[in-house]
Design goal:
Length: 203
């Protein structure tokens, strides 16, 4: 049985995956960032363009961004739904004489991370590696923040349990689930000493 990767090997693997992901995202014709609540997209365009030259269509489950008469930069089904009334776009002037289309999408589900803006995106991110910044968590309302923090704790607990179980299996020892069943049987035995548990098996 192959041994589990060491912490340093996992760290190196994660760093390589993160670098590869960053390189892939840089190839997209737009940049995007997200919080647990919303998502922002920036599309660079020529400095001589005006708002009437830009076509942005934001629907609940679709997004289209294009310079009129050209192939769309983004055109597809959104990874998850958005609140159209709370979403918007602007055309802004940036340094160097260029402009950019800035799009803000308000997520319908405030408990989901997106792996891409649209489902047909060429490159996607690994949402399991996202760690929300404390400042971003602080922006959430109390109930949502509590749910997000609970999700983070549960995911961390499951990861620790999986690593523990892997080590136990490699050493031929019971996993956390097997140990829990054994403890339950011992407790039941103590409560019912008159019963014979010599052939009892926990499945």
């Amino acid at each position: 049985m192959p041994s589990s990767p060491t912490p340093s090997e996992r760290e190196r693997s994660d760093a390589e995956a993160k670098a590869r992901e960053k390189e892939e995202q840089a190839k997209l014709p737009y940049k995007w960032t997200q919080t647990i609540q919303d998502l922002d997209i920036v599309v660079p365009v020529a400095g001589n363009l005006r708002g009437k030259d830009i076509e942005v269509v934001i629907a609940k489950t679709k997004l289209k961004v294009a310079v009129k008469g050209q192939t769309p930069v983004i055109d597809g089904d959104l990874t998850h739904g958005v609140k159209v009334d709370e979403s918007a776009w602007t055309l802004e002037t940036v340094g160097g004489g260029g402009k950019e289309v800035s799009i803000h999408l308000d997520k319908s589900n405030k408990m989901e991370w997106w792996d891409a803006v649209v489902t047909n995106a060429e490159y996607k991110i690994d949402t399991s590696k996202i760690v929300p910044e404390n400042s971003k968590l602080g922006d959430l309302d109390g109930e949502t923040r509590g749910m997000v923090e609970k999700m983070i704790r549960e995911e961390a607990m499951l990861t620790r349990r999986a690593r523990y179980d892997q080590r136990q299996k490699e050493m031929g020892k019971p996993t956390s689930e097997e140990q829990g069943k054994a403890d339950m049987l011992k407790k039941f035995q103590a409560q019912h000493p008159e019963m014979d548990f010599s052939n009892a098996k926990m499945s």
